[in-house]
Amino acid sequence: MYKTNKTYRTTSPVTGQEHILSCQEADCKNYQNGWRVRVDGLPADLLHYVTHSGRVYQRVQITADETWLIFKAEQKCFDQHVSPYRPAYYYSKDRNGVRTHTEAKFWIEEYAENLEAIRDRVQKG
Question: CA 35 → CA 58, 71, 75, 107, distances in Å?
Answer without folding.
Answer: 11, 5, 10, 42
